[in-house]
Design brief:
Strand order of the largest sheet: 14-15-16-13-12-17-18
Mean pLDDT: 97
Structural class: alpha/beta
Family: Belongs to the aldehyde dehydrogenase family.
Strand content: 15-25%
Shape: globular
Number of domains: 2
Low-confidence stretches: none
Pfam family, one: Aldedh
InterPro entries: Ald_DH/histidinol_DH, Ald_DH_C, Ald_DH_CS_CYS, Ald_DH_CS_GLU, Ald_DH_N, Aldehyde_DH_dom, LUC3-like
Radius of gyration: 23 Å
Organism: Aquamicrobium zhengzhouense
CATH architecture of the largest domain: 3-Layer(aba) Sandwich
Number of helices: 15
Distance between the termini: 61 Å
CATH topology of the largest domain: Aldehyde Dehydrogenase, Chain A, domain 1
Largest sheet: 7 strands, mixed
Keywords: Oxidoreductase
CATH class of the largest domain: Alpha Beta
Number of strands: 20
């Protein structure tokens, strides 16, 4: 069984202890995660700080080339990385699974390489010249989750590198191995110390957000943990980008065609088995279409092959870990006991792994925990409504504000309603379709700051105004 190593200043290092990483589909050990200490973190931050002195002075062209080189290196090893993601995270190789994730890493890194933050001239006249320069911040601390372990790592690391920062990343202890391997590959094309990885217990993440040598924290995860990151980062006034999940609402208007929108609704909710921050978590359907939408979604759900992600035939995998599995089961059982109707699913199949079938829950209302809270699994509550004018207020009555969608043949009508949704991203007749050139971030409790595109690059810089 391979014992993985942390990587500091371009060198892989062993640790005194390790922790097993298991395949959620089988329970088998995939590899062993190195358990770093706070001393290891200090050394990683020191190495990143030293590397920042030279990396921050490299030219824009050098940084652009480095990001393209990262993309090329990921592409070269994409199948190896995809299989590692499947083994530790559970998602299938095919469909919107680990090969899709590895390909997304390649595309995102190439795209990010081409974004620019040129000097902005805001005055140039006989009174003088005033320029706005974007300067890198320093060492960026990154904490990533277990649902898209490598793609989110790329989202954190590549913009930091592109803007002249250096990085220390701590992946989730559930899925650390693909990130370790990713950083090893990055270090084949980057100077030592520019990107470092430490893995281990949650205490390492807490120490990162409080560390005086880290200038900015980027965190993707829960609201509760995001609040802790923000609180500890306040001691050193760190910059923050926090993406804290969502409880995205989809609204189906009465003129929609259930058959035309069925696949969009399904994958909007169940990409990665629903374990996606920007997935649809609650679906509001007009009374006139309710039964038909339930029927078409049920038909799709019962046709989708679920199983071990290493089987090429499967397009859905298990829930990643026991804690999340139990949370999903409890939400469904609570809804069932309260009188909701389980259209399909709702019963764990026999056999190993944290498998839970696609579960559609009808005859449920706001006020149920399954509707009000982020379930983060293969379950979708479908809520009936009759008043189109009032449904936006119902959808907005939630502390989350990451994404939302409206489904209708009348695109302008859908857009008018969509603009009333209190969320950072909104889609018409689709859901969760993010792209590298479009800013992505949350409103309300779903986060602070944005990722992607030039707006995302700016999050890794501070402004320096030059008066000439």
């Amino acid at each position: 069984m391979e014992k993985y190593r942390i990587l500091i200043n371009g060198k892989s290092e062993d640790t005194a202890s390790h922790q097993d990483v298991r395949n959620p589909a089988t329970g088998e050990i995939v590899g062993q995660m190195p358990m770093a200490t706070n001393d290891d973190l200090d050394r990683a931050v020191a190495a990143a700080g030293e590397a920042f002195k030279s990396w921050s002075r490299t030219s824009d062209d050098e940084r652009k080339a480095a990001c393209h080189a990262i993309a090329a290196k990921i592409e070269e090893h994409s199948e190896e990385l995809a299989r590692l993601i499947t083994q530790e995270q559970g998602k299938p190789l095919n469909g919107l699974g680990s090969r899709f994730e590895a390909g997304g890493c390649v595309g995102w890194a190439h795209a990010t390489a081409e974004f620019n933050l040129p000097v902005e001239v805001i005055q140039d006249d006989d009174q003088g010249r005033v320029e706005i320069h974007r300067k890198p911040l320093g060492v960026v601390g990154s904490i990533t989750p277990w649902n898209w372990p490598m793609l989110i790592a790329v989202w954190h690391i590549v913009p930091a590198v592109r803007t002249g920062n250096t990085v220390v990343i701590k992946p989730s202890p559930y899925t650390p191995l693909s990130t370790i391997r990713l950083v090893e590959l990055m270090n084949e094309v980057l100077p030592a110390g520019v990107v470092n990885v430490v893995t281990g217990p949650d205490s390492i993440g807490a120490a990162m957000s409080a560390h005086p040598g880290i200038a900015k924290m980027v965190f993707t995860g829960s609201i509760a943990t995001g609040k802790k990151v923000m609180a500890s980062a306040s001691e050193t006034l760190k910059r923050l980008t926090l993406e804290l999940g969502g409880n995205d609402a989809g609204i189906v208007l009465p003129d929609a065609d259930p058959k035309e929108i069925a696949e969009g609704l399904f994958w909007g909710a169940f990409i990665n088995g629903g374990q996606t921050c920007g997935a649809m978590k609650r679906l509001y359907v007009h009374d006139s279409l309710y039964d038909e939408v339930c029927d078409v979604l049920k038909d799709l759900a019962e046709k989708m092959p679920m199983g071990n992600g290493l089987d090429e035939a499967n397009v859905l995998g298990p829930i990643q870990n026991e804690m999340q599995f139990n949370k999903v089961v409890n939400y469904v059982e609570g809804a069932r006991k309260a009188g909701a109707r389980i259209l399909t699913g709702g019963v764990k199949p026999e056999g190993p792994g944290y498998f839970y079938p696609i579960t559609l829950v009808a005859d449920i209302e706001d006020g149920s925990p399954l509707v009000d809270e982020e379930q983060f699994g293969p379950v979708l509550p479908i809520i009936r409504y009759s008043d189109v004018d009032a449904i936006v207020d119902v959808a907005n009555n939630n502390p989350h504000g990451l994404g939302g969608s409206v489904w209708s043949k009348d695109v302008q009508r859908a857009k008018d309603l969509a603009l009333q949704l209190e969320c950072g991203s909104v889609w018409i007749n689709k859901h969760g379709a993010i792209q590298p050139n479009a800013p992505f971030g949350g409103a309300k409790s779903s986060g602070i700051g944005v990722e992607f595109g030039e707006e995302g690059l700016k999050e890794y810089t501070h402004i320096q105004t030059v008066f000439c």
